[in-house]
Amino acid sequence: MSPPLTKNARENYVASVTLIVLTSVCVLLRLSLKIFRGQSPRGPDLLCFVAMGVFGTYAALILNFIFNVSQYRALDPDPRLGVDEAMNLAKLVYTNELLFGAGITAIKLSILWFYHDLFSVDMTLLRVIRVTAGICILWFVVATLVIALQCSPVQAYWEHYDLPPYCLEYPRVLLGYEISNLFIDVAILCIPTGTIIRLNLSWLRKVPIISIFLLGAVVCIFSIVRLTAIWNPPDIFTGLNFGATYIWSTAQLGVAIITSCLPTFGPLLSFFAKPVPYIRSLYEALRSFSSINRSSARNKVMGAVGDEGSWGRVADDRGTSPQSWTHAVDLDTTQFALHAVPSRAALVDRGVDAV
User: Which of 3.40.50, 1.20.1070, 2.60.40, 1.10.600 is the CATH number of 7-264?
Assistant: First the structure.
């Protein structure tokens, strides 16, 4: 007869199974909505799908350890469990820390790519988004190298249980890892807020939109809780709370995937808009935001070529080629030679016969 699950193992089992189901439902629903609307999944959707796969692997390794590897069905660093089980647990921690970095970075890039598409008319904001994406990639590379090479040789992580002089102090490494991760999360949360505040919308409509983008703050809360588990004074060398760290890491990664999908569920709100007043208000605010964003895009294009209404007739030098009506700037006459016009500098209304 198998022994019962320890408290730590039971909590991680429940968290892993629950979040596997929720993340799978959210990501597959996100992709299904795209396909149902006749759209092909784009970069943000595919990155979210990759993150779901990474998280599935992460959680599956936890479940495999609890039910197949651990003789005591435990997930606790207890020396009484024996050398082999302690080594296997250390291998699990090492592997999952690397997977965590890959999964959380994929989600960050998915969100930033979504912002890039959504705020494509604001060049300043696009530069901020691109710089933030570059920081995310740099963080991932550095964090992966630090985690992977924190012990010399690498196998000392599980053969010597991550202890000096073979390894860096694990709580310190994990603390720097999580603090930098938290700062990047906060920066990503702040990106859309200023733009939305500047929109020509009432606060009644702005607040629901901002609330959707700030759902990612839940991930920051999990990150802060994980920090408290990592660093547990007064003993700064052995203060790592392993059980709490592991369960909050699982929750942080899973909830990050879920919250990244929520802003894409706008079409679903139409089904609940009539019976629920708040959802109706939220749906109308989202539609207003989308409409204003498209209007801004049109104004950006028209602003690049002059004031609206300055339409002129163009023809080639021979006067025998098809003509178009195109937007012109400071034109003294109604007829001009046809030259190559940049796509963002002209609006074509219709084609006419040459005269």
Answer: 1.20.1070
